[in-house]
Design goal:
Layout lengths: L34 E6 L6 E2 L3 E6 L5 H12 L10 E5 L13 H12 L4 E8 L7 H10 L9 E5 L4 H20 L4 E4 L4 E6 L6 H18 L3 E4 L9 H4 L6 H20 L10 H5 L5 H8 L11 E3 L9 E5 L5 H10 L4 E6 L12 E5 L2 H6 L6 E2 L1 H4 L4 H16 L5 H5 L18 H6 L20 E7 L2 E3 L3 E6 L5 H13 L10 E3 L9 E2 L1 H15 L4 E8 L7 H10 L8 E4 L6 H18 L5 E5 L4 E6 L5 H16 L3 E5 L8 H8 L18 E5 L6 H10 L4 E5 L12 E7 H6 L6 E3 L6 H13 L6 H5 L13 E2 L1
Parallel strand pairs: 3-4, 3-5, 5-6, 8-9, 8-12, 9-11, 10-11, 12-13, 13-14, 17-18, 17-20, 20-21, 23-24, 23-26, 24-25, 26-27, 27-28
Antiparallel strand pairs: 1-2, 1-7, 15-16, 15-22, 19-29
Helix pairs in contact: 1-4, 2-3, 2-10, 5-9, 5-13, 16-19, 20-21, 20-24
Length: 799
């Protein structure tokens, strides 16, 4: 173009001239006999660089259980140089009501995790009814020759109470602790190293210093018989000529280009182009279109190294050499696939300073510039900026190679010292052709209105003890640390835990600090999904129970602080009400934790305890959710409760996916001839009294509850059938059930309906009023058993 711009390029397909193709010879094998200290696994599993006990949530439904069990077992793990720890693999996939389009990718990823050489033993956990479940995982692993017999493992399907499930999980993994502690590192060839090559938060120097350095070391590993894995399909568009400059054979060229074409089609089904990948952080630092970004990303392949093989997402690397793995540009989703393919070490190049980690594979973070390295020295392992300062690439390569061997042998990385990690498997996509793309893109925004119902007021209005803040009714005061993206989520959680340990805000009536960790805000794209995300974030920032809120950005994501500040202003919300912090710009984890604590301390000192006042139930906003088919008495009980609240001019919000809207005994008697159409967008604030139906882009319970919390409801009342649901991290959720559910989950339910059905409306209302008055805390809220998952809508897709 004649001048720099931020327009997405429309690139022509790369023209492969098959007649002129010449196969490239392999690298000359090194005569060096470098070795590392690793954990040799039986059979074909290879050699691990770490030794972890893994709690694997087979689907998103068991994610909360996996995290909670890993936390409990970690304290019992034997202090040892041989067992590196107990970690949870908790992810967002396979837990909805329908078969997802990415089911094969999910099963392949989970099977790869189970037999990974860094895994000493693994407990896979499900409920048994999910689309991705233990039975399917076991079958997939057996059909595709994954060596399950060579790893200590157990498939656990949860039944009964949470306490019983945790006790059973602890019993199983306790039997492995001594076994894992007895395992020892042995001297092994570097041919057993398989390196994931990944970059995130890239800048204009990523392709000059950081990626070439990672490629230099990867070349040395390949020369010694090891393997390297280049990924992120959309971040190689525009660099095809470089990637294909040296290739093993013509078929590998064709396979690479077929993955590019397939990915372009996938995002096109969702109304997007893969050329729109660059994030705000990329553009700020010089990568203002996909070609510039891809040219730099491709430098992770050293010019002397040929492309040996092309594999699908999470497919095993079964030979030595240099691989390309099909994956989205989303860093965490891409890394998960590389690990599932067998990578036992990760090279992560970053220009802005990405601090993400994977639970059981160490990450060496390579910073592209010295100035940025000094800012984030506590989080970064390698300063590739020294190349820009005059140090030769050969010298830097030798240094990083030595660090690689030391890390593979057990030396702890900066990320491992920090103690945080996150997993995100390539998320499901909703469109499989163009049949709905145009209609979904042109769908009008929902008006945010309640259904037109006329309900007679009860003779007497129930009351509860509320907290009054600036004319707003609250049922609890909470300090909120809101991560703007997936990459700042774990740091936000660390900040909330720190505030809770120090009881910051307790003297002002603040009960706790929360950080709703999620997987969005970067690495996904689309106008509709971005609008959904922003609407939900603003809903939580303005939630009536939030005393003070701070937004925490990673620093290089698509949804960063400045972008959300603009959104606040556009919606007439004063950004000065909120705090803003940045993991990268504030100088790393410890510094940003200090900044967050200081901001909340100052904000709380500026205020004081909020007054309490008895108010009518008309001041309450109630979220209502249900799974499974309601019995006639349950429907009648909910109907009487809702009529009482609506008659008092309260707000009641129900997700479109809630089963109670399919119950004639509830919906027809409440709504009459009025259709139960959604008038409220996902995560849209419910304004005014009335009965609101919120759109639900999926039938995933946690996604529905996450959107419901953003509408501003004070409490959620949930009817369960198969098993209780994880608590919402911010909004207290009361769970009830009758019949078999009441008997099986009586220890977990807040309201087991065992009284005569005529008493049920009174029991439900009484527990709601007691919770709103802070006289009762729901059981799962007290246990820390919670989950949070944003929907991407029908047009969101990983990029």
């Amino acid at each position: 173009p004649p001048q720099p711009n931020f327009e997405d390029l429309e690139l022509e397909p790369f023209p492969l001239d098959e007649d002129q193709f010449t196969p490239a010879p392999p690298l000359d094998r090194s005569t060096e006999t470098d070795m590392f200290q690793g954990f040799r696994r039986p059979g074909s599993r290879g050699v691990g660089t770490r030794n972890y006990l893994v709690i694997l949530g087979t689907s998103s439904q068991s994610a909360a259980y996996s995290r909670l069990l890993a936390q409990r077992v970690q304290s019992r793990a034997l202090p040892s140089n041989n067992l590196d720890g107990v970690v949870a693999v908790a992810h967002t996939e396979g837990g909805g009501a329908e078969r997802p389009n990415n089911l094969e990718l999910v099963l392949r990823s989970l099977a790869g995790f189970m037999v990974h050489p860094n895994v000493g033993a693994v407990l896979a956990v499900d409920y048994g009814s999910e689309p991705a479940n233990n039975a399917l995982l076991r079958q997939f692993a057996q059909q595709h020759d994954y060596a399950l017999a060579d790893v200590p493992h157990h498939f656990l399907s949860l039944r009964g109470s949470l306490a019983d499930g945790l006790a059973e999980g602890e019993r199983i993994v306790a039997e492995w602790l001594e076994l894992l502690d007895a395992q020892r590192r042995t001297r092994e060839s570097l041919a057993h190293l398989k390196v994931a090559l990944q970059c995130g938060g890239s800048d204009a120097f990523s392709g000059v210093s950081g990626n070439p350095l990672a490629g230099w070391v990867a070349r040395e590993i390949v020369r010694r018989g090891g393997a390297a894995n280049l990924a992120e399909t959309d971040e190689l568009i525009g660099a095809e000529s470089y990637v294909l400059a040296r290739v093993r054979d013509l078929e590998t060229c064709r396979e690479f280009l077929s993955r590019i074409d397939r990915y372009k089609q996938l995002v096109a089904w969702h109304g997007l182009t893969a050329e729109g990948n660059p994030s705000g952080g990329n553009r700020l630092r010089g990568l203002y279109n996909i070609t510039l970004k891809s040219i730099g990303a491709a430098m992770k392949r050293h010019p002397e190294v040929r492309l040996d093989r092309v594999i699908d997402y999470a497919a095993p690397m079964s030979h030595p050499g240099f691989y390309f793995m099909d994956s989205p540009g989303n860093d965490l989703e891409s890394v998960a696939g590389q690990v599932a393919s067998g990578a036992n070490l990760i090279f992560f190049t970053t220009g802005n300073g990405s601090v993400t980690n994977f639970p059981f594979v160490p990450t060496l973070k390579v910073m592209t510039t010295t100035r940025r390295f000094k800012l984030l020295e506590g989080e970064m392992d390698v300063n590739a900026g020294l190349y820009l300062d005059g140090t030769g690439m050969e010298e830097l390569g030798r240094r990083m190679f030595e660090l690689t061997v030391a890390t593979a042998s057990g030396q702890v990385t900066k990320g491992e010292k920090a103690g945080h990690y996150q997993v995100s498997i390539w998320r499901d996509w909703r469109q499989t052709d163009f049949s709905r793309t145009e209609s979904l893109q042109s769908a009008p925004a929902l008006p945010g209105t309640a259904l037109p119902l006329e309900i007679v007021a009860p003779p007497e209005e129930p009351t509860f003890n509320s907290i009054q803040r600036e004319g707003v009714c609250a049922t609890e005061l909470v300090n909120l640390i809101l991560p703007t993206s997936l990459c700042s989520g774990q740091i936000a959680r660390m900040a909330a835990e720190r505030l809770n340990r120090k009881e910051v805000g307790g003297e002002c009536g603040v009960s706790r600090a929360v950080a709703p960790v999620h997987t969005e805000g970067c690495g996904s794209s689309g106008i509709s999904s971005d609008a959904l995300y922003t609407r939900t974030m603003l809903g939580y920032l303005t939630h009536p129970n939030v005393a003070h809120a701070l937004l925490l950005e990673h620093g290089c994501e698509k949804m960063h602080n400045a972008r959300l500040q603009r959104q606040l202003q556009e919606h007439g919300i004063e950004p000065g009400r909120y705090g803003f912090a940045s993991v990268q710009l504030d100088g790393g984890i410890e510094r940003v934790l200090d900044r967050i604590e200081a901001w909340f301390t100052a904000a709380l000192e500026a205020g004081g305890p909020a007054p309490e006042r008895e108010v009518g139930i008309g001041s309450l906003r109630l979220g209502l959710f249900s799974t499974g088919r309601l019995s006639e008495p349950e429907a009648a009980g909910l109907l009487e409760l809702v009529r009482t609240m609506l008659g008092c001019r309260a707000s009641v919000v129900v997700p479109q996916s809630a089963s109670l809207l399919e119950s004639p005994a509830f919906a027809e008697r409440l709504l009459g001839s009025t259709p139960a159409r959604a008038g409220l967008g996902y995560g849209q604030t419910a304004r005014g009294p009335g009965f609101f139906v919120m759109e639900s882009p999926s039938r995933h319970a946690v996604e529905a509850l996450t959107g419901l919390g953003a509408t501003g409801v004070h409490l959620i009342l949930a009817r369960i059938e198969d098993h209780p649901l994880p608590a919402h991290p911010l909004v207290h959720m009361l769970q009830f059930g009758a019949g078999q559910a009441s008997r099986e989950f009586s220890d977990d339910l807040d309201i087991p309906l065992e009284e005569p059905p005529g008493e049920w409306p009174r029991l439900l209302l009484d527990k709601i009023l007691r919770t709103a008055s802070r006289e009762y805390t729901p059981k799962y809220s007290s246990s820390g058993y919670s989950d949070f998952q944003l929907s991407r809508g029908l047009l969101g897709v990983s990029m």
